[in-house]
Every structure is written in C-alpha cells, then in structure tokens.
Automatic annotation (TrEMBL):
Name of the protein in question: MFS transporter
Source organism, top-level taxon: Bacteria
Keyword list, A-Z: Cell membrane, Membrane, Transmembrane, Transmembrane helix, Transport
Organism: Microterricola viridarii
NCBIfam families: efflux_Bcr_CflA
GO biological process: xenobiotic detoxification by transmembrane export across the plasma membrane
C-alpha cells in the first residue's frame, strides 16, 4: 500500500484505491468492534452468571462497569502513545493484552477474579477504537473524513446492539466461559489482520513535524478547544443513554418480561436496524445538506422526549410495547448522533488525532461506566430507572451543545 505515502493528494487517503479503502474499512471496522463486543457479548449470560457464581445482579453489572472503566483508561494511555510512536505498535501490544485477559476471564473461579480480568480486557480492547479513529484522521479530512468515519460509526453503533444477539446464539452451544474464548479468538484474528494488511499511517516524519511534541502539549491543544470539550460531553451523554439500555435490558426483558436469551437477542437485532438507519442517514445529511451540529440539536431534543415517554408509559401501565417502541426511536437517535460527534470532535485535530480520539472514547466509556450502575441500584423491575437515566443524560447533552459547543460557531466542513 505504497500509495499512502504519495504526496500529491491533500490527504494520504485520497490516493487509496477502492480496494485499499475496502481493506481499511473492514480491518479498522473490526478493530472498532473489538471494544463493544468485549463489553456486550456476554450480556445475555448475566442471569447465568448470577446463578452460577451466587452473586447479585448489581455485582454482575459491576463486571460490566469494570470493563468500561478499563476501556476508558486504556484509551487515555494508548491514544497519546500512538501519536508519539505510531499506530501499529500500541495497537498490537494492547490487543495481545486483551487476548490474554479473555483467557483469564474464561477460567475465572469467582466474581472478583472475573472482574479483574474484565478490567484488563477493557484496557486491552481500548486500542481498537481509539487507534482506528486516529488512523482514519491520519488519512482523511473534511467531507471524505465524514464518509470514512460514518463507516466506523456504523460499526461502533451496531456492535453494542449486535453483540448480545451473537452472544445469545453462542449460549445455545456454550456457556458464559465459551463467550470469552470466542473473544480471545476474535482478538487474535484482528492482530493478524493488522500485522498483514495495515501499514503505519503516522510515519516518523509526521511525528517529527507535529507542533505538539509532548503528551501534555497534545492534551492541552485538545482540551483548550471549547468545541471539542462540549462535543465530548454530548457524545458521552448520548453513549451513556444507550448504555443505560444495554445494562438494564438483560434483566428487564429476560426476568421481568420473560424473554429467552434468543428472544432477547432478536430484540437487539431489531434495535440494530434503528442504528443503521440513523448512522447512514446522518452521514449522508452531513455530506450534502446540513452541518453535524444541527443534527445533534434535533437528536438530543428527541432523546430527551423519548426518555420521558418511556417513564410516563411505564408508570401508566403501558406494558412491554410502551417500552419497546420509544426505546427503538431512542436508539435510532443515538445512531444519528454517533457520526456527528466524531466528525465535529476530530476534524480540527489532525496533528493530535490519537489524543483527541482517546479523550472522546474515554469520556464515552468513563461516563457510561460511572452512571449506568445507578440503574442496578435503583432496580430493574421496571423501565422507570432506565428511562430516568436516558432523560437526564439527554438533558445534559442539550445543555452542553447549546452552552459549550454553540452550534453557530462550529466551522463548516471542507470539501
């Protein structure tokens, strides 16, 4: 893929052939999916874990929280490191940590050992999402960046909702330990693909020319950008709203509404259609019609309304359909939001793309990891706690968009 090194195009990725772009979409998409799969693939096994290990639902949810915290911390380390030493080395080493942690989780004897390995899994999987986004920013800018990020946003949005579908099917042939063996194999395939087909997108010359040569300088450049900070808060709140659903739904639909693991997986499959619609429609609108900040203005308002609708319908006894229908539209609005957040946050930070992507990811998973356990504490016998968290996070996103980002001040995307 020597074409990447060509100097004629304004961005390296402009010189890639259609076949080369497809390779990057597939491999970087697989990298992006590693984190969400690590976090969500075992969601359908939560009741099984609760029974086999003899622990409470909230204790099982804490293993999910540990994974997200590890994922957030890992991104804060791997992202800036990849700006300094290049993308491939941190990616390969961190993913190897993920593989070893998966093996450890598969052999865990109690909830505490499992929680420790889940933390390491999250840390190791962190490289996939942050480095994939940084690689895309290395290669593209402006509206071509929108197109490539939309592909990653689709994977990033689909993976959390498809993972439980796959996990529920795996439970037909294996137990929760088998899910971790599958994750270890997936990580091994990803490492091999990166080794064989992905070239370094941040060569030594670019690292030497960077205006921000130290980690502190790169963090300062990103965190002093008001638009980035506000967008990161918006993205974190949107993701936390989605994660409120992910962490509560396995108990709500299987234990309260009596779904089997496979029926639960089908529900997630139906919701994934909403993510596809949202991501693809949003990315097309960004490239042709409207700025991403204005799409966020609409989606965050809709999410607040839908969160309130879930609470009201649950309180008035609307039953299963009173939860499922507004929930589908809420998840669709999340799909609309994902590419907008990534484009606004990364477009102005080409020289410190790894640092910017790491802060964006750490905000997403850190906030979700801190806030989502509140649902377990409030109880999962009704949809009310889930709807309440969705509503509050949406209102915070609205405030951050209008008071910090300030949509009218966001620069237009270049062609």
């Amino acid at each position: 893929m020597a074409a990447i090194r060509a100097a004629a195009p304004s961005h390296r990725g402009d010189a890639l052939s259609a076949r080369q772009r497809l390779v990057y979409v597939l491999v970087l998409g697989a990298l992006t999916a590693l984190g969400p799969f690590t976090i969500d693939l075992y969601l359908p096994a939560f009741p099984m874990l609760e029974t086999e290990l003899g622990v409470s639902a909230s204790a099982v949810q804490l293993t999910l929280t540990g994974t997200m915290i590890g994922f957030g911390l890992g991104q804060l380390i791997v992202g800036p490191w990849s700006d300094k030493v290049g993308r491939k080395l941190p990616l390969i080493l961190a993913t190897l940590v993920h593989i070893l942690a998966c093996v450890g989780a598969a052999m865990a004897s109690d909830i505490f050992v499992l929680g420790g390995f889940r933390l390491l899994q999250g840390f190791g999987a962190a490289a996939g999402g942050v480095v994939a986004m940084a690689m895309v920013r290395d290669l593209f800018g402006g509206k071509p960046l929108v197109k490539m990020l939309s592909r990653l946003a689709l994977v990033n949005g689909l993976a959390p909702v498809l993972a439980p579908v796959i996990g529920s099917q795996l439970l037909l042939v294996t137990d929760w330990r088998g899910i971790f063996w599958v994750l270890a194999a997936y990580g091994a395939v990803v490492v091999l693909a990166v080794w064989l087909w992905i070239v370094e997108t941040r060569p030594k010359a670019d690292r030497a020319l960077s205006a921000h040569s130290t980690v502190g300088a790169r963090f300062k450049a990103v965190l002093s950008d008001r638009v980035f900070v506000g967008t990161a808060i918006v993205g974190g709140m949107v993701f936390t709203g989605l994660f409120a659903y992910l962490s509560a739904s396995t108990f709500l639909f299987q234990q309260v509404h009596g779904f089997t693991p496979q029926e639960y997986g089908l529900l997630f499959g139906a919701n994934s259609i909403g993510v596809i619609i949202g991501v693809q429609t949003s990315s097309r609108l960004i490239r042709t019609v409207i700025g991403p900040q204005w799409i966020l203005a609409i989606t965050t308002a809709m999410m607040a309304f839908l969160g309130i609708a879930i609470m009201v319908l649950d309180a008035t006894g609307a039953g299963l359909w009173g939860t499922i229908i507004p929930l589908w539209f809420f998840i669709t609005m999340c799909g609309f939001s994902f590419p907008c957040v990534q484009v606004i946050a990364l477009n102005g930070h080409g020289q410190e793309a790894g640092t910017a992507a790491s802060l964006l990811g750490a905000t997403n998973f850190g906030l979700a990891g801190i806030i989502s356990p509140l649902i377990g504490m409030l109880g999962v016998s009704t949809a009310l706690p889930m709807g309440a968290v969705m509503t509050v996070t949406s209102l915070i996103a609205i405030a951050a968009l209008w008071w910090i980002v300030r949509p009218r001040t966001v620069p237009a995307l270049s062609a």
